[in-house]
Specification:
3-stranded mixed β-sheet; mainly alpha; 2 domains
């Protein structure tokens, strides 16, 4: 989650420095932590320093085994940031590159489309939102939560362009839960109301803005993903060899994987949103147990460890996007692996 707290209430420069130090302590989490640090630097007004962090992430993975989990996201954020301090040509080149690579994650698409939109490139923003929706949603029975901003952004841009509603706009309307409809929120005439001298118009617009802000804050304040802990086969074998008392929790690796999938499906069917999976390692788990003053053999420590990994940005959204690899790292697409029965 990228911070959006105003600079007058948070020392964004200090927070960025803290996150950089934390990234040094947890190199396996450096990507998520440094992205948060870069966001704070943008909010502090130090956009060149934010670009330097994006470049640091991109260069650290070049020619090394420590590849970024989401290089498209880093490039999209860099492009958006560059455009904000007069590096338009470089930003456009990066945006074109992101679109050409067609990432399977919604976030880079949303960021580059919104960058175009914020600089009045409405047609290009519309085309970008539509490309992403075509790629990610055509075969989806129900849009994953991560793709909702694609539909909302596309709806907003089409409203500003005066285009009629289509099927995806109708879908966005059904997904939107705020008491104020998307058509009202995305009405281009709203901006005129803000300059009105009519108290009634201003009061009506303030009510709309409060509703919109409430929905936005609700999205931002969503808890960390309800994260289920996943142990790769080698890590689980090492864990049980060191702490045999956990064998009752993990009878076999195959059953462990089946339990993860069934648990997530039960949570989804009960209406629980924002589900994710975190992958554990024995050294990381032992370090966590030591920090808690507890024994790694304590079974009650496992969900706390999962929550901590999620808080450090290690959760991967479930279910995976269509065509993406299964969360179990089998190398098979999710639909042909643990998603086969979905």
């Amino acid at each position: 989650m990228r911070p959006d707290t105003p600079a007058e209430t948070v020392d964004h420069t200090a927070e960025a420095a803290r996150l950089e130090r934390t990234a040094g302590l947890y190199p396996e989490d450096a990507e998520a932590l440094l992205l948060q640090a870069a966001a704070h630097l943008e909010l502090s007004g130090d956009r060149p320093a934010a670009t330097a962090l994006y470049d640091r992430l991109l260069s650290s993975s070049a020619g090394s085994s420590a590849e970024l989990e989401n290089p498209h996201l880093v490039r999209a954020l860099k492009a958006s940031n560059l455009w904000e301090y007069d590096h338009e040509a470089e930003a456009r080149a990066i945006i074109d590159g992101v679109r050409a690579t067609a990432p399977r994650d919604a976030a880079p698409w949303v960021i580059v489309a919104e960058a175009l939109e914020s600089h009045d490139e409405l047609e290009a923003a519309h085309d970008t939102f539509t490309e992403a929706a075509t790629l990610l949603l055509t075969d989806a029975a129900e849009p994953p939560y991560s793709t909702h901003p694609l539909l909302y952004g596309r709806h907003r841009v089409r409203r500003m362009l005066g285009l009629p509603h289509d099927d995806w706009d109708a879908l966005a309307d059904t997904l939107h839960s705020s008491p104020v409809s998307l058509d009202e929120l995305h009405d281009p005439k709203r901006v005129w109301s803000l300059g009105s001298d009519n108290p009634a118009e201003l009061e009506a617009e303030i009510s709309r803005l409060r509703a919109e802000l409430g929905a936005y804050r609700e999205a931002l304040s969503r808890p960390f993903p309800v994260a289920v802990l996943h142990w790769p086969a080698t890590e689980l074998a090492e864990l049980l060899a060191a702490y045999p008392g956990l064998a009752a929790e993990y009878p076999t690796h195959e059953q462990h994987l089946a339990t993860i999938e069934s648990s997530l499906r039960e949570l989804a069917s009960s209406g629980t949103p924002n589900l994710g999976i975190v992958t554990g390692t024995v050294p990381s788990y032992e370090a966590f147990a030591a920090s808690e003053g507890a024994s790694p053999a304590d079974v009650t420590l496992l969900p706390q460890y999962a929550t901590t990994l999620a808080a450090r940005g290690r959760a991967v959204a479930w279910p995976p996007q269509r065509g993406a690899g299964c969360w179990c790292a089998s190398g098979t697409a999710y639909e042909g692996c643990h998603g086969l029965a979905a």
